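Hi everyone,

Forwarding the result from last night's run.
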Amino acid sequence: MRSFRYLAAIAACLSSFGCNVSTVQPLHSPDAAIYDPGLVGTWSMENGAVSLSISREENGYAIVVKSRDQSASYSAKLLELGGQRFCDCRSTKPTGPDAVPVHHVFRVTIDQDELRVGIAEPSNVKTALAKDPARAEYVTNEGRFVLTGSTAEVQTFFREYGRDIFMKELKFRRR
């Protein structure tokens, strides 16, 4: 049961109704996507309840999120903005909430055998958007934010406010 809760939390973060900040347009652009071989591998939460299998795919990564009894697949791009790395994820099998084709954004930090996945705090996203409402167009749904601007506009938003909005982190260790 516990593994289901962890997978549900990660899957919720990766779904358009659970991720606290998503974008209609991709966060990555062809000139901004990067590749880091250190991201490739199998990562597990300390208690082993959830794992991420990350492999290289053409122009990005394939990510499979697994618990003991469920899995979900995503295609992802890694990019660097303002000295931070972000992962732009999109479901490869859109169903349910993922049927809405949005890009889920996370901050990622790799430190040898530790992967930290930053999840946006809704109150921090709201504060950042209130600082300059013209900076990023968005809609909200049940307290979650979907940025509707162009790729260049959402890149500017994350470059400027990424340090302020991604406060919660999920930690994974390389297996």
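The radius of gyration is 15 Å.

Cheers,
N.
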